[in-house]
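note to self: the first set is below, dont mix up w the second
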Amino acid sequence: MKAYVFLLITAVLYAGNIIVGKAVNDIPPYTVAFFRVFIALLLLLPIGWRQAWRYRHTFRTEWKPLVALALTGVAFFNTFIYASLQFTSPINVSIMESSIPVVTILFSMLFLNEKLRGIQWLGVFLSVGGAIWVITGGSWQVIRDLAFNVGDVIMIGAVLTWVAYSILVKYHLAKFPAYGGLLVMFVIANIALFPIASIEWAVGGFPPIFESDHMLGLLFLGIFPSVVALVLWNKGVEAVGPSQASVFLNFLPVFTIIGSYLFLGEKITPVQVIGAFVVITGVLLTTRKKRKAVPILKEKELAQ
């Protein structure tokens, strides 16, 4: 149950990422991504540097999965989202992001030998369908008229990046200390994003990040979605696996609607209420565990 609470909080913080990201969308996307991870690095430095130094030999021997985790989950997932929004609509981005659970399940079945029961498959399709219902306003016309462009292709990269990160978490994250590992990942992410952000500054000039609204927005992005949410997500994935954890991403449109109502003054429609109910039902079905059988289980099964 604790893992599910962690994943729920993660969805709330990622919804905040969307809302606050909209407030600073006049800053170029890679610049937002760079300063987000730079602030997170500064936050983690006093917390994780001792662990990082203590596990330095592990980082050297396991550098390949460490770099892969840093590039997928820390550096480029949200960067792809920010970049895709420069070319495509939020509707396209949100619908494609809601496909993450299905794509994660397919990849997990291929690489992790995970299996889902029929009722869990029903939950997956309900949660995805509910997310699409919320985002499109219950209109088939919106879905039918969607047109793929450069932004949609970039968003496909975001989906695959997060799926790869979730699977890497299941395989490799336990090798690294919680805060020291994140600290090193943020260092890698800063190194990867800085050259790209520098190109944005060379082309369009250095953005006004020191304005109060921009600074507050970047601080929120650097602290809560970047550090707090990532720690909670990693713990959730370790506990329940990438397939079930990814279903909680379908709460994103629900929490985004609530946040938009509270902070942006937008109205909540009956279509959105119905969609929210369907999403929550789907998540509950997908995360429902199979009851244990009456016969005594084998020692190996008990150990799992």
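second set (the one i keep forgetting abt)
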Amino acid sequence: MEDAGQLTNLLVWVITVVIFLSVFLPQMFKIMREYERGVVFRLGKFQSTKGPGLIVLIPFIDKVERVDLRVLTINVERQEVITKDNVTVNVDAITFFRVVDAEKAVIQVERYIAATSMLAQTTLRSVLGQFELDELLAERDKINKKIQTIIDRQTDPWGIKVVSVEVKDVILPESMKRAMARQAESERDRRAKIINAQGEYEAATKLVEAGEMIEKTPTALQLRFLQTMNEISEENATFAFLPLPMDFLESFRPKKKE
């Protein structure tokens, strides 16, 4: 009977120790990964920032908030934006940021990821409204840099560093796409006409220069005539040449009335 009583007491102690360890050990020891930091609160008051590695806490007195220091990604949902020239477009973007001060990220703002996401959406609409459609399509890097600077400045008190902001897609209405296509076609036609007219002008200029040269050097006309005959003789067809002196044609011109 005594052995049975001792065994019972031993089992009670073992069960008590197991329960104690299962309850208190998870509260006393926490393991922080290399990219994590633990913000420790003691009785609700900030105590310190610990990690990485093993940290020791006072059970039921210390509370810890884990903060991930890796670069996080926020997909800014598609926003309807009115540009400076009153064109409605749908734009979405991606924001890359990371926590540089775990204490501020936990204490200064509630749910820093959600707060940064909302700020990115608001800033995206605000900044894109300051640009015209052509600038939005052509100066993407400039717009990305400006959005990043604004978000980074506003999230700095939260201990957050915005790494990059990238505007992904700019979706235009179908009517605007057709208008831009017509504009591009008209621009190509305009450039083609200008190039054609410029070619005609240059050709006419060269002909005038050639005429002035021939007028000053009559022998040049004779050489040009002989060159033309040589080019024609290279063909397979048979031609008959009847060279006439240029002065011979002067007699057929009508005389001016005095």
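remember for set 2: The longest helix spans residues 174-216.
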